[in-house]
Amino acid sequence: MNRLLDCINNKKIGDTPIWFMRQAGRYLPEFMKIRKQNTDFVKLCLNSDLAKEITIQPIKRFDLDAAIIFSDILMIPYGLGQNVSFKKGYGPRLDELQIDILTKVDNKTFTKNLKPVYETIKKVKKEIGKKSLIGFVGAPWTLFLYMVNKQSPKKNFNFNEITKNNALTKKLYKKLEEIICVHIKNQVDAGANIIQIFDSWAGLLPENQLKDYCYEPTKKIVEFVKELNIPVICFPRGIDKNYGDFCSSVKPDCISIDYEVDPNWIKKNIKTSVIQGGLDPKILLKNKEEIEKEVRKYLDIFREQPYIFNLGHGVLPETKPEIIKFVTSLVRKYK
Ligand code: 1CP
After folding, report:
1. Is the C-beta atom of 236 inside 6 A of ligand 1?
2. Which of 11, 12, 145, 267 has the CA that lies 20 to 30 A from 109?
3. Measuring from atom 8 of ligand 1, which residue has the nearest CA?
């Protein structure tokens, strides 16, 4: 039995599957121990034995329905030769974007650069039995943004500035659309059986640019994944009521919602994609009564349709591992 695939493919209701965005990571002491000894984050992602171990850590601790491979969306710029580093307390830093060099990196070279990521998938697959293995990519917009801005847009963001060089924008989007598909295909060939597309910064796009920068390019990727016969989950974070237009245009098998959009609005307006997520990760820092109330709220709202339990964004580093266990058991016991 595979709860996640049953829910997405067979539209099974009840026995809600559960996994967490960022389930492998900084809130787990066993991750922090490995992280302390491995100060170079990209190198850690490229160490397939350690990446396998980190991927499996939350699966060992909690009864989750899926593993998500330990890697990062920024491994795509890395694979294209734009170096990435993570400075403590600062977030990602990317080297200068050299568009003419980057567009010449062919699929074979890219695949070779990220080979350890695919090795990780093969190794995880051997250890998780029938549980789902989620591969992932950043959406074209979110990757474009990091690559041009060279750091998190949390610190500075101006749409006109980021897109002012029309020729570069076109070239980079074209390359990203192609290479994202290569990265997906490689992950599927290695054993990933679901793909999630993270568009974490979709909410920064001006509304009148969503179609060109988010829906249309994402739709091409979604169609590619569907051709591989693999279910695809999209997470266009922060687009509020545009989740409706997103789904009618992009048609993902499953839509992961953030915590700012009203789940009742989603229930009423989205009929064609399975719903995932929604709960504010900050709720998990509260007491158990409040957590239970909010978990139940989402389960109640979506009880008559296929629903995957998850958060509206990643697990926060301050979250106690015990709370992830608590939420998982609430979801398992829910009738
Ligand atoms: O120890 C550390 O300092 C590293 C923290 C960390 C971790 C654990 C980063 C740096 N990335 C990851 C792993 C990761 N990233 C995973 C696999 C683990 C899992 O989910 O269990 C995944 C799926 C991601 C995806 C990712 N990376 C996204 C999309 C999801 C989201 O959170 O919106 C984004 C935007 C990134 C970029 C990134 N990588 C790391 C950080 C701190 C960030 C965010 C930077 C920013 O704030 O702009």
Report:
1. no
2. 145
3. 25
